[in-house]
Structure formats: structure tokens, C-alpha cells
Amino acid sequence: MTIRRQRENTLHPLDLAVVVAYVALITYVGIRFSQRVKTAKDFFLAGRSLAWWVIGLSIIGTNVDTNGYIGASGNAYSIGIAQANFEWIGAIPAMIIAALIFIPLYWRAGVYSIAEYLGLRYNQAVRIVAASIVVVMSVFAMGVAMWALAITLQTFIGWPIWLGILVSGTVVGLYSVAGGLGAVAITDSIQVCIMFVCGLIIVAIGISDAGGTERFISKLTAENPTHLSAYLPADHESYPWHGVILGLGLVLSPAYWIGSQAILQRTLGARTQWDAGAGMMFAALAKTFVPLLIVFPGLLALVMMAEIEYPDMALPWVIKNVLPVGVSGLMFVAIIAALQSSIDSSINSTALMITRDIRHVLIKNHNPDADLKIGRLLTLGLLLSAMSIAPYIGNLGGIFNFLQSLLSLFQGPMLALLLLGALSKRATGTGGIITLVSGVALAGILSWVIELNMLYVAFFTFCYALPTLWIISGFTQPHSAEHLKTLTYSPWSAR
């Protein structure tokens, strides 16, 4: 097998030109879209002007972010193709359910956020608590993304962590503060196209360097026999097979695709309801190709015996040492853009929730005309917060496991509220707030006191939350049928 000589931590002039061109392009996009941003609706929902194909590409760009690109490749380096279960199990069915049931609900309700929908379906207390939980989680997720950007820059060009955080935060701030969701969606679409092209090039060159598919597989299995197992043993510390099916397939994936603000905000910014649903379906189709692109680099780094300090460095190492000049710069841009997508999406959606789901509820005499200014200030503040915690993320272990552990703390109760709220008129506000608070508290106990695997935390909290919500709601006053008419699903009312 051919193993390429490791390059020095400097950019080839051609690679540098590609990176500079990309930075110039996204800066231009930010400036261009800033001219269209006149209201908070323009900033947070792109003026509801997004076409289906932009929505679909932006959804993939948001999804294949730090967690799904750098983190997933690093996890594949550690555990093998079982990592792809996070794509294979649950994602596509959940995306179809979101397109057919939940997106029409959110659209008919006319909401800006998932928390706003929960406020209408249950009460304002549920809205505030749900938004607050997501805000805290998002700040950590943005810090993770900053960390991933920094180690990518360190691996590729030798920058210290602090410099990578500073530069990447500044670049993201230039277009996300100025252009809002419109700029974010377009830059996401650009990066996804680059990612797919360069990902296929990595596969082709990696297989060629290994001497063909058979030699690649034999080399991998000779030293890591379990890395081609689709499911890991039931006693595996992180990903036991029944935990993957129950926790991931039944809870984490559905909760993410029907309840993630960063994902669904793109559909809420669609020009029509049809574009919203079609965008999600288009993303589901594209999702079928994602596992190959995010898992293979981790396996390739293992086969080529990469000398890396963290598993999360697997993909940056492959970009640096496998790809030819020019293509390497293009892929470097793709990975930077994918990580930037994670940051800009979280910043915009989090600023929206603080502005509308927390401020609008707590401050009765708020001025809606100030939402745009406040949204931009919050975007800047959240960016600075993420930059401040990013240097400490490296001490928390692999970024994929860290983010999944965060999600497991509230996805079970959140899924219960969304499912029962959308599919039944029985659920009440009192039942919703008690279930949400107690469910998250239970998740904390299971995770930090009992130290249960994150997959089981998600599953057991969902199993607790669903009957709890059903029982408590039976003893409390529901909303009127007229109020629930547009907030619950009916196949005859969906348009």
C-alpha cells in the first residue's frame, strides 16, 4: 500500500488560493444578504423565501456538522462502520415523518420555532423551559464546533488552538451576524456540494492507495477485526446493539428530526409549505450517501496508521496526507465550511429562541421592532461565549460522544411532548411542564449518578415521559377543540 509522505504544516500556494477564494465567497454572501435583512423575519427566517433545494442542502449541511463529520470520522476510527448506524437507523424514516406530519403542523401554526409550537400546544412555561434547555445545549455544541475547527487548523497548517478559535469565530461572525438565515442557508448549500465531491475523491484515492478494495478490507480487518461489524456486542461500553436500536432508532433520531430547531428552522423559512416538505424529503434522499463520506476517512486513517493525538483528527489528517494539492485545499474548505455550518446554524436558531421564546414571554411590554437588533447582538454574544469555552472541549473526550450525551438528557421527554402533543388532543399544559422538568431531572440522575449509557438514558426517559404525560393530562384541563384544530395532526387537515 502506498503511504504518502506527511506534509509540513504549511499551505501550498494553490491550497491557500482555494481557501482565500472560499473566505471571500462567504463574506460576499454575508454582505449580499445583509442588504435584504430589514426585519427580524428576514434575519431569522430569510423572509420565508427559501426554495426546496436550498432547504434540503442546508439541512444536510447543518446535520453533517461537527458531530456528523469530524466527530463521526473520529468515532469510525475508534469503533468502525458501526458508527454509520447513526445514519442508517432512524434518520431517513424520521425525516419522512417530519416532512409528512410535523412540518405541516408547524407551518399551519405559523411559528418561528419548535419552542413556540410547544407554547401554543401546551403553555408558555413549557415554551420557556424547552427553549432554555436548547439554548444551554447549543452553547456547548457551538463550543465543540469551535474546538473541532481549531484542531483542524492545527492539523492542517499548525496553528495553535487559540488562533484557530479566534480566526474561525471572526469569519463566521462576518456573515452570520450580517446576513442571518438567508446567508447561512446559501453558505450551507455551497459547502455540501463541495463536501460530496471531495468526499468521493477521498474514497477513490484511499482505495487506490490501499491497492484496491480487497487489500483495504484485509488490512483493516487484520489489525481491527471488529471494525467491519455493523453492530457491536451487547456489552460494548458505548454502542451496544440493543441500545443503538432502542435509544438511537426509537428516540434520539426521531427527536432530532422532528424537534431540532437548527434543522427545522430551514423549513420554517421556506417560501411555501410544499417547499418545506420537499426540502426535507430531498435531504432524506441525500442522506443515503452520507455514511460513506463520513465513515470512510476514519477507517482510512486507521489503515494508513495515522499518527494523531485525538481520534477527531482522523479526517483532517487524511485531507492533509492523502489528497493531492488543490483538492486538499478544496476539501479543507469543505470541512471548515461543514464546521462553520454547525456554528452559524446554532447561533441563529439560539438567538431566535432567546429573542422570541424567552424575551417575548418574560417581558410583557417588549418591542417587536427591536427583535432584529437584539437578534444580531445575541448572535455576536453567543459566538463570543462559544469561543470562550472551546479551549476546554478537548478535555471532555471525543466530540461525538459528548454531543450525543448532551442530547440524551432532554430528547426523551421532548419526543414524548412532540408526539403526544401532535397526535392527541389529550395532552395538557400542566402535564407537559411536569413531564418535561421531571424527565430531564431523571435523565440527569441516570447519566451522572447511575452513569447509564447515553442510549439507555434516552430510551428510559422516553418510556417514563410518555405515560407520565398521558396520565397527568387525564387529570388536568385540556385546551379547547377549536384551539387544538391547527396544532394537532389530522390527515384530512394536512395541506
Low-confidence stretches: 1-7
Q: CATH H-level name... which superfamily?
A: Sodium/glucose cotransporter
Radius of gyration: 22 Å
Terminal residue distance: 56 Å
Number of helices: 22
CATH fold naming: Sodium/glucose cotransporter
Class inferred from helices and paired strands: mainly alpha
Q: Any idea how many domains?
A: 1
What's the level 1 CATH class? Mainly Alpha
- How many strand segments? 0
Gist?
This protein is mainly α. Helix content is 74%, strand content 0%. The chain contains 22 helices and no strands.
Task: Please give a structural write-up.
The chain is mainly alpha-helical and 495 residues long. It has one domain: Sodium/glucose cotransporter, CATH 1.20.1730.10. 74% of the residues lie in helices and 0% in strands. The protein is built from 22 helices and no strands. α1 packs across α9, α14 crosses α15 and α19 packs parallel to α21. The longest helix is centred in the middle third of the chain and has 49 residues. The N terminus is likely disordered.
